Amino acid sequence: MTEAPAALIGVDWGSSNVRAYLMTGGGTILDAIASADGVATVAPGAFAATFRRLVGGWLDQWPALPVLASGMVGSRNGWREAPYVPCPADARAIAADLLAVEAAGRRVLIVPGLSCESEDGQPDVMRGEEVEILGIATQGARLVVLPGSHCKWVAVDEEEIARFQTFVTGELFAALRDHTLIGAFARTAPMGAPGEAFARGVLRGASAAQGADGSGLIGALFGARSLPLTGKLAEADAGDYLSGLLIGAEIVEARRRFPRENPQVAGASALAQRYLAAFAVLGERASAAPPGAAARGLLVVARQAGLL
Amino acid sequence: MTEAPAALIGVDWGSSNVRAYLMTGGGTILDAIASADGVATVAPGAFAATFRRLVGGWLDQWPALPVLASGMVGSRNGWREAPYVPCPADARAIAADLLAVEAAGRRVLIVPGLSCESEDGQPDVMRGEEVEILGIATQGARLVVLPGSHCKWVAVDEEEIARFQTFVTGELFAALRDHTLIGAFARTAPMGAPGEAFARGVLRGASAAQGADGSGLIGALFGARSLPLTGKLAEADAGDYLSGLLIGAEIVEARRRFPRENPQVAGASALAQRYLAAFAVLGERASAAPPGAAARGLLVVARQAGLL
């Protein structure tokens, strides 16, 4: 059996990293490139040159291969701004709005991000995650959680992205830990695998978000200081506790809008492991999403766009 | 009628500032000193010398006058640690636990802070605010709100401090504004008097803390970015909106534990004005606490300690 030929160059181009894939039409990854040339590091006007430097070898070797790029590369600060596609949106709707740019005589198709509006009128946006979700949705997911600075919860209906919401949990944790007095104990505490203090934080954050016992999140946050200060939590556990507190609160909040379905947690990061641990603490059935979602999602969009 | 003689040197010695008062037994302030020699700026072992430098003139002129000091001066990083007095506590209980230190042959009595435990077992502490509250309580207050980095809500019962809780609203606002992507618009926005965007933020924060429309605080925070990003909030209003969001959420949270009573908001700061505006937006009756609370509270403690 001969190896299937390369059929797509897919680029997942985020703020801080780029991952590029040389793929067959069946989704086999023949070659991959990872680099720190994220959108935030590329000067305006330098995207075509950066692109050429990153995947020039593939372009030369495969002069007719289509190129698809997703992520912050399509933002205002990226190569060119690709307007958001409103939810609900499936791969076909997304593929219908690809934005073409030119580099080294080749056409690069940029995948647009998605927009959404919550019941209370708050707008929401994503760029890049939509491709990952399409990659996960092919395997039957109905609720996907993508942990990160801005964690996304996404409802999927028959491979259509129905709606989503952003929770600023990761960014909130970093700002509190690094720049507040209540985060001072957490700042010096080691962060290993989630342990007992994490579980305690998850339960406390969940009750706070529920308003149980007359509590709430802003008040519960003071515990990250007052518990170690009064010897009721080991100082070394303060970071784990604070992390649990925020993730526990997020899960309760998010479950108001995304009830019932068992979540699939995307990514293999330590943070994704924390989310899986938090779901377990709260007695919820959650699973890790299958790996390789971004590459698979790029292939889904490429197919809908007739590139394959 | 001759002027009443000086009867007390009272020092309100916080982390970043010192205010000292030369007072008569009836509470008239004969002289006052304000300085930036807060506890955070004084080297360990240098408190006696700093004290002498600040109020040496009064000490020389009034060789028999009692000296009472409150605030972070009694913390672990202060002059000497004065153990917390548990709530409920009145002026007599606080006066019973004054801690004496020596400086220039004079005795300085340090007022202890208060500790408290909430219904869900979270410990809470204050240092310095208890004196302010005693000063306000003499005028009949039953619920006092002291805005700041760590805002305190305090229930007062017949001039006894019944219980209190800390909300980290101010510190949360600063960390989000100065150190996150969702705070980027707020960071560059001017902060004037609270306006329409503030009111909008208060209402949104209040619904989020109530979990109304399936919302919650961590999700609502993303609005500080997504609303200006999509043109649904002027960029110049982002700071006012974020400030309102957090204060509105705090008020709803705090009202779970401190219902019914009309709050008195302590201090004449711009932040205190924001709290009064937020209470008004939520249809609550709140008033400004009478000024001069710290000096009056020091006098209350001095009387209970038999110093006058």
From TrEMBL, chains A, B:
GO MF, any single term: 2-dehydro-3-deoxygalactonokinase activity
Superkingdom of the source species: Bacteria
Keyword vocabulary terms for this entry: Kinase, Transferase
Alphabetical list of CDD domains matching this protein: ASKHA_NBD_KDGal-kinase
GO biological process, one term: D-galactonate catabolic process
InterPro entries, A to Z: DGOK, DGOK_C, DGOK_N
Record-linked Pfam families: DGOK (PF05035)
Protein's recorded name: 2-keto-3-deoxygalactonate kinase
Provenance organism: Roseiarcus fermentans
